[in-house]
Structure formats: structure tokens, C-alpha cells
Amino acid sequence: MPFALLKDRALISVSGPDAEHFLQNILTTDLEMLGAGEAKPGALLSPQGKILFDFLISRAGENGFRLECRADIADDFVRRLMLYRLRAKAEIVKQDQSLVTVVWGDDATASYSDSTALADTRFRDVAVRRAYDGAARDGGDAEAWRTLRIANGIAESGSDYQLGDAFPHDVLLDETGGVGFKKGCYVGQEVVSRMQHRGTARRRVLIASAESALPASGTELTVGGRPVGALGSVNGRTGLAIARIDRVKAASDAGEKIVAGNVPVTLAIPAWARFSFPQDTVSAEEA
User: b or e along 228-244 (b: 16 or more beta carbons within 10 Å of the residue's beta carbon)?
Assistant: First the structure.
């Protein structure tokens, strides 16, 4: 059974009688739809709708929640949550010495069926579970984990986009259950709802493939020298990209090559995603 120990993650606990109400009012995730044993994605946004912090959230007891995020942003995330807490009866604590283990494959559910393991709901075509029990293990296969994320179109900040630079739609939080469109207001909600209802999302996570090794993460994707996006996580000849789907479609219709550096690439929508390339496009020059 493949697994990886994620040493670059941290856990933040939010507990108390007002914890759910407090988080429901500021995060994109609809906590009323969060079941026991699930880890759902989400974000804390700026008022302009950009992602300031991304995370996976799960229930931890009757009045508690656990937020798993990048270790390097955890302290800033705690401080931002403190600013929003005001008089809410909720305790916010970064846990010390957090160990996050992720396992996947056909037997992942059976092997990690205890109460400490959570289903990573971002993945549709493979069972993925996350364990926070702190059990000491060797590091597993981090490269295989990156390969799995790429194959399934699962983007994460740091590896695939920069915080403060992306809307939830850009990184498919609208597709992976990370945005509650039927919940009440939260920080940045007006911008996100407008993008959803008007169908104006144009930057999307795509899976990049090439006949030779892809260049480094962050390499710009271009058509005839004009930018259409950039590479994120890369592993050999495959990777993730965040790109303008209207410009990608226009290039395809015109028979123009999309390149990363000097490497021709093909960009595809993740198989599970509901969005599609736009039918009416402008040329890459007009875009």
C-alpha cells in the first residue's frame, strides 16, 4: 500500500461552543456538509476573493475542527483566525509536532478504517486517506504522492500557485467541494458567487503532458510568445498547470502550439471535472 509522510504540513485545532459558527462565517467550506471521517478542502479569502490560506478541514470531536495546512503558513493562519474570532467562544491552537500520513490505493480504506483516518474528498477516482495519529513511520514515497496529485488534477498552494494570487475557481475548489455556494456569507463570498453565477472563471487547473521532460515549476506557458498560464507541480513528462482555458481553446482551434519554455505541451481537463473548454473563443492574439 503506497503512502507518504508529509513533513511540510501542520495542524491547527479550533474548538469550543462557537467553533462551527465562527468558521462557517469566514471560510469557503460549508461545514454543514462536512461529515465525520472526511477531510474537505477550503480557503480563507481576502475581501477581493483571493486565496490567503488553503487547507483541509475535518471534525475533531463534538465541538472541534482540525485544519491541516502548510507548515510554513500555519503561524500566519493562526494569527488571521485570531483577528476574526472577536468574542466567539473558540480556542485556536497550532498543534506541536504534527505528523500527517497519506495513503492511497484500492486497500487504503480497509487499511485505515480507524477513527484517526480521514477520507480526502478531493480525490474522486482513487481512495485517499489522511492519518493524524502521529504514528512514527519512514517517509514513504513522496514522489509517488506528487505523481498521484498530478494525475488527479489536485493543486496545492506553494507547489502549484501562490497565495494571494488565485481565486477558488482557479484551483478547482468549486469542483472539489471546497466552496459552499448554498451557505451564508463568508469573507470574499460576493466575488466568488459572482464568478460562479456569471460563469466567468477562465483560469483553471489543467494536466500538462509532453513527449520530453517538462521544465521546472513556474515556467510560463506560451502560444507564439503570448502567455496563457504557468506550470505548477512537475514530475517528468507530466505536471499541473494553471492556464486560461479560453486561450488554450483558441490555440487548439488555430492549430498553434502551446509550449513550456521550448517544450511543446498538451493540456487536458482532469477527467472528473465538470467544467469544459469554452465553445466561443477569441484568437490568442485577441486574448
Answer: bbbbbbbbeebbbbbbb
